[in-house]
Write a structure and sequence with these properties.
Blueprint: H1 12-25, H2 29-39, E1 48-53, H3 59-67, E2 71-77, H4 80-90, E3 97-101, E4 118-122, H5 130-143, E5 149-155, H6 161-180, H7 189-201, H8 217-226, E6 233-238, E7 241-246
Parallel strand pairs: 1-2, 1-4, 2-3, 4-5
Antiparallel strand pairs: 5-7, 6-7
Helix pairs in contact: 5-8, 6-7
The structure holds S-adenosylmethionine (SAM).
Length: 247
Protein backbone atom coordinates (compact mmCIF):
# COMPACT_ATOMS: atom_id res chain seq x y z
CA UNK A 1 0.00 0.00 0.00
CA UNK A 2 1.41 3.42 -0.85
CA UNK A 3 1.34 6.37 1.53
CA UNK A 4 -1.53 8.86 1.24
CA UNK A 5 -1.75 11.26 -1.68
CA UNK A 6 -1.59 14.17 0.79
CA UNK A 7 1.77 12.99 2.20
CA UNK A 8 4.18 15.88 1.60
CA UNK A 9 6.39 13.98 -0.86
CA UNK A 10 3.41 12.85 -2.94
CA UNK A 11 2.43 16.24 -4.37
CA UNK A 12 4.01 17.27 -7.63
CA UNK A 13 4.57 20.88 -6.37
CA UNK A 14 6.76 19.69 -3.48
CA UNK A 15 8.65 17.11 -5.55
CA UNK A 16 9.37 19.42 -8.48
CA UNK A 17 10.56 22.21 -6.16
CA UNK A 18 12.73 19.76 -4.20
CA UNK A 19 14.14 18.36 -7.42
CA UNK A 20 15.29 21.72 -8.78
CA UNK A 21 16.37 23.23 -5.47
CA UNK A 22 17.66 20.32 -3.33
CA UNK A 23 21.20 21.78 -3.01
CA UNK A 24 19.69 25.07 -1.77
CA UNK A 25 17.20 23.37 0.58
CA UNK A 26 19.71 20.98 2.17
CA UNK A 27 22.87 22.86 3.21
CA UNK A 28 25.08 19.77 2.70
CA UNK A 29 23.22 18.07 -0.16
CA UNK A 30 26.21 17.77 -2.49
CA UNK A 31 28.69 17.16 0.34
CA UNK A 32 26.67 14.12 1.47
CA UNK A 33 26.55 12.79 -2.11
CA UNK A 34 30.33 13.39 -2.50
CA UNK A 35 30.97 11.39 0.69
CA UNK A 36 28.83 8.51 -0.58
CA UNK A 37 30.52 8.50 -3.99
CA UNK A 38 33.95 8.43 -2.28
CA UNK A 39 32.89 5.31 -0.38
CA UNK A 40 32.15 3.44 -3.63
CA UNK A 41 35.53 1.82 -4.24
CA UNK A 42 34.71 0.32 -7.66
CA UNK A 43 36.69 0.66 -10.88
CA UNK A 44 35.16 2.97 -13.52
CA UNK A 45 34.08 -0.04 -15.67
CA UNK A 46 33.52 -2.61 -12.90
CA UNK A 47 30.06 -4.19 -12.82
CA UNK A 48 28.06 -3.68 -9.62
CA UNK A 49 24.45 -3.31 -8.48
CA UNK A 50 23.41 -0.33 -6.39
CA UNK A 51 19.98 0.36 -4.91
CA UNK A 52 18.99 3.84 -3.71
CA UNK A 53 16.17 3.49 -1.19
CA UNK A 54 14.01 6.61 -0.90
CA UNK A 55 15.96 7.74 -3.98
CA UNK A 56 13.45 10.45 -4.94
CA UNK A 57 14.09 12.10 -8.30
CA UNK A 58 17.28 10.12 -8.94
CA UNK A 59 19.87 12.87 -8.41
CA UNK A 60 22.32 10.60 -6.57
CA UNK A 61 21.59 7.71 -8.95
CA UNK A 62 22.51 10.01 -11.85
CA UNK A 63 25.91 10.79 -10.31
CA UNK A 64 26.59 7.06 -9.70
CA UNK A 65 25.65 6.17 -13.29
CA UNK A 66 27.81 9.00 -14.67
CA UNK A 67 30.85 8.09 -12.60
CA UNK A 68 30.66 4.28 -12.93
CA UNK A 69 29.98 2.90 -16.43
CA UNK A 70 29.58 -0.63 -15.00
CA UNK A 71 26.96 0.32 -12.40
CA UNK A 72 23.29 -0.68 -12.54
CA UNK A 73 21.09 1.40 -10.27
CA UNK A 74 17.58 0.78 -8.95
CA UNK A 75 15.69 3.70 -7.40
CA UNK A 76 13.14 2.56 -4.80
CA UNK A 77 10.61 5.14 -3.60
CA UNK A 78 6.97 5.29 -2.51
CA UNK A 79 6.28 8.54 -4.40
CA UNK A 80 4.87 8.41 -7.92
CA UNK A 81 5.76 12.07 -8.72
CA UNK A 82 9.36 11.59 -7.53
CA UNK A 83 9.75 8.35 -9.52
CA UNK A 84 8.36 10.07 -12.64
CA UNK A 85 11.11 12.70 -12.30
CA UNK A 86 13.70 9.96 -11.74
CA UNK A 87 12.59 8.07 -14.87
CA UNK A 88 12.92 11.25 -16.92
CA UNK A 89 16.33 12.10 -15.45
CA UNK A 90 17.77 8.59 -15.91
CA UNK A 91 16.25 7.70 -19.31
CA UNK A 92 19.60 8.32 -21.01
CA UNK A 93 21.18 5.50 -18.95
CA UNK A 94 18.71 2.76 -20.03
CA UNK A 95 19.02 -0.17 -19.45
CA UNK A 96 21.29 0.57 -16.46
CA UNK A 97 18.53 2.29 -14.46
CA UNK A 98 15.46 0.61 -12.92
CA UNK A 99 12.61 1.86 -10.72
CA UNK A 100 10.53 0.24 -7.99
CA UNK A 101 7.55 2.00 -6.44
CA UNK A 102 7.32 0.77 -2.87
CA UNK A 103 7.29 1.92 0.71
CA UNK A 104 10.53 1.05 2.48
CA UNK A 105 8.36 -0.82 5.01
CA UNK A 106 7.07 -3.14 2.23
CA UNK A 107 8.62 -5.92 0.17
CA UNK A 108 10.78 -3.84 -2.24
CA UNK A 109 13.62 -6.32 -1.94
CA UNK A 110 11.56 -9.01 -3.72
CA UNK A 111 11.24 -6.67 -6.72
CA UNK A 112 14.99 -6.20 -7.30
CA UNK A 113 16.51 -7.83 -10.37
CA UNK A 114 19.69 -8.89 -8.52
CA UNK A 115 21.17 -8.82 -5.03
CA UNK A 116 22.75 -5.36 -4.58
CA UNK A 117 26.43 -4.85 -3.76
CA UNK A 118 25.53 -1.46 -2.28
CA UNK A 119 22.37 0.00 -0.77
CA UNK A 120 22.45 3.78 -0.34
CA UNK A 121 19.93 6.26 1.01
CA UNK A 122 19.82 10.03 1.53
CA UNK A 123 17.37 12.10 3.56
CA UNK A 124 14.70 9.38 3.59
CA UNK A 125 15.10 6.88 6.44
CA UNK A 126 14.48 9.51 9.14
CA UNK A 127 10.82 9.39 8.03
CA UNK A 128 10.52 5.92 9.59
CA UNK A 129 9.74 5.38 13.24
CA UNK A 130 12.20 3.33 15.35
CA UNK A 131 10.70 -0.15 14.82
CA UNK A 132 10.43 0.54 11.07
CA UNK A 133 14.10 1.60 10.90
CA UNK A 134 15.14 -1.62 12.66
CA UNK A 135 13.05 -3.74 10.28
CA UNK A 136 14.45 -1.84 7.27
CA UNK A 137 18.06 -2.37 8.38
CA UNK A 138 17.40 -6.10 8.79
CA UNK A 139 15.85 -6.14 5.29
CA UNK A 140 18.89 -4.33 3.83
CA UNK A 141 21.26 -6.80 5.53
CA UNK A 142 19.31 -9.73 4.08
CA UNK A 143 19.10 -8.14 0.60
CA UNK A 144 22.81 -7.35 0.14
CA UNK A 145 25.13 -9.63 -1.81
CA UNK A 146 28.00 -11.12 0.27
CA UNK A 147 30.51 -8.39 1.16
CA UNK A 148 27.90 -5.71 0.44
CA UNK A 149 27.74 -2.25 1.93
CA UNK A 150 24.96 -0.02 3.28
CA UNK A 151 25.41 3.78 3.34
CA UNK A 152 22.93 6.27 4.80
CA UNK A 153 23.42 10.04 4.45
CA UNK A 154 20.62 11.32 6.61
CA UNK A 155 19.41 13.55 9.45
CA UNK A 156 20.64 12.39 12.89
CA UNK A 157 19.54 14.28 15.99
CA UNK A 158 21.79 15.40 18.85
CA UNK A 159 20.94 13.93 22.26
CA UNK A 160 19.57 17.19 23.67
CA UNK A 161 16.14 18.53 22.69
CA UNK A 162 17.41 22.11 23.01
CA UNK A 163 20.23 21.44 20.53
CA UNK A 164 17.88 19.67 18.10
CA UNK A 165 15.41 22.52 18.24
CA UNK A 166 18.20 25.09 17.64
CA UNK A 167 19.43 23.13 14.59
CA UNK A 168 15.89 22.89 13.17
CA UNK A 169 15.36 26.63 13.70
CA UNK A 170 18.67 27.40 12.00
CA UNK A 171 17.67 25.20 9.02
CA UNK A 172 14.25 26.85 8.86
CA UNK A 173 15.88 30.32 8.60
CA UNK A 174 18.26 28.97 5.94
CA UNK A 175 15.30 27.73 3.83
CA UNK A 176 13.22 30.91 4.31
CA UNK A 177 16.20 33.06 3.31
CA UNK A 178 16.81 30.91 0.23
CA UNK A 179 13.15 31.32 -0.87
CA UNK A 180 13.41 35.10 -0.37
CA UNK A 181 16.67 35.15 -2.40
CA UNK A 182 15.14 33.07 -5.23
CA UNK A 183 17.38 30.02 -4.68
CA UNK A 184 14.32 27.89 -3.77
CA UNK A 185 11.10 28.32 -5.81
CA UNK A 186 8.12 30.03 -4.16
CA UNK A 187 6.18 26.77 -4.75
CA UNK A 188 8.23 25.19 -1.94
CA UNK A 189 6.82 27.64 0.66
CA UNK A 190 3.79 25.46 1.50
CA UNK A 191 6.10 22.47 2.11
CA UNK A 192 8.34 24.62 4.30
CA UNK A 193 5.36 25.98 6.28
CA UNK A 194 4.14 22.43 6.89
CA UNK A 195 7.68 21.37 7.92
CA UNK A 196 8.01 24.34 10.32
CA UNK A 197 4.62 23.70 11.90
CA UNK A 198 5.37 20.03 12.52
CA UNK A 199 9.04 20.31 13.52
CA UNK A 200 9.18 23.65 15.34
CA UNK A 201 5.68 24.77 16.46
CA UNK A 202 4.72 21.22 17.44
CA UNK A 203 8.27 20.16 18.40
CA UNK A 204 7.19 18.31 21.54
CA UNK A 205 4.34 16.30 20.02
CA UNK A 206 5.11 12.59 19.63
CA UNK A 207 6.34 11.64 16.14
CA UNK A 208 4.67 9.00 14.00
CA UNK A 209 5.72 7.25 10.79
CA UNK A 210 6.03 9.82 7.98
CA UNK A 211 7.09 12.63 10.35
CA UNK A 212 10.76 13.46 10.81
CA UNK A 213 11.51 10.71 13.35
CA UNK A 214 15.01 11.90 14.23
CA UNK A 215 17.26 9.55 16.19
CA UNK A 216 20.89 9.88 17.28
CA UNK A 217 23.92 8.41 15.54
CA UNK A 218 24.72 5.99 18.41
CA UNK A 219 21.11 4.73 18.41
CA UNK A 220 21.12 4.07 14.69
CA UNK A 221 24.61 2.55 14.73
CA UNK A 222 23.22 0.18 17.39
CA UNK A 223 20.23 -0.71 15.18
CA UNK A 224 22.59 -1.53 12.28
CA UNK A 225 24.79 -3.71 14.51
CA UNK A 226 21.69 -5.50 15.83
CA UNK A 227 20.68 -6.13 12.19
CA UNK A 228 23.97 -8.00 11.66
CA UNK A 229 26.16 -5.28 10.10
CA UNK A 230 29.88 -5.06 10.98
CA UNK A 231 32.24 -2.06 10.83
CA UNK A 232 29.43 0.42 11.35
CA UNK A 233 30.73 4.00 11.58
CA UNK A 234 30.01 7.60 10.69
CA UNK A 235 32.46 8.84 8.04
CA UNK A 236 31.26 12.47 8.17
CA UNK A 237 28.96 14.54 10.42
CA UNK A 238 27.96 18.20 10.54
CA UNK A 239 25.05 19.78 12.46
CA UNK A 240 21.92 17.67 11.72
CA UNK A 241 23.52 15.52 9.00
CA UNK A 242 25.87 12.53 8.86
CA UNK A 243 26.94 9.70 6.59
CA UNK A 244 26.93 6.22 8.15
CA UNK A 245 28.51 3.21 6.46
CA UNK A 246 27.95 -0.43 7.43
CA UNK A 247 29.46 -3.55 5.88
C1 LIG B 1 13.73 14.57 1.07
S1 LIG B 1 13.35 13.43 -0.16
C2 LIG B 1 15.00 12.86 -0.60
C3 LIG B 1 15.06 12.25 -1.97
C4 LIG B 1 16.44 11.80 -2.43
N1 LIG B 1 16.94 10.70 -1.63
C5 LIG B 1 17.41 12.95 -2.42
O1 LIG B 1 18.27 12.99 -1.53
O2 LIG B 1 17.29 13.81 -3.30
C6 LIG B 1 12.71 12.06 0.78
C7 LIG B 1 12.37 10.86 -0.07
O3 LIG B 1 12.06 9.76 0.76
C8 LIG B 1 10.92 9.12 0.23
N2 LIG B 1 10.26 8.40 1.32
C9 LIG B 1 9.86 8.91 2.51
N3 LIG B 1 9.27 7.95 3.25
C10 LIG B 1 9.30 6.82 2.51
C11 LIG B 1 8.84 5.49 2.73
N4 LIG B 1 8.26 5.14 3.87
N5 LIG B 1 9.02 4.58 1.75
C12 LIG B 1 9.63 4.93 0.58
N6 LIG B 1 10.09 6.16 0.32
C13 LIG B 1 9.93 7.10 1.27
C14 LIG B 1 10.08 10.24 -0.33
O4 LIG B 1 9.10 9.78 -1.24
C15 LIG B 1 11.16 11.09 -0.98
O5 LIG B 1 11.48 10.65 -2.27
Amino acid sequence: MSQSSTYRWNTSGATEAYDVAAPAIHPYYEKVQDEILDLLSFGAEEAFELVDIGGGSGRLAERVLEQFAGARVTVVDQSEPFLALAERRLARFAPRAAFVQSRLQDEWKEKLQAAPNVIVSTSAIHHLEPAEKRALYAKCHAALAPGGMFINGDEYRPESDAELRALLEEWSVHMSDAIAAGGIPESFRATLDFWKDRNINRFSEPKKSGDDCHETLPTQIGYLQDAGFKNVRATWAEKLWAVVVAK
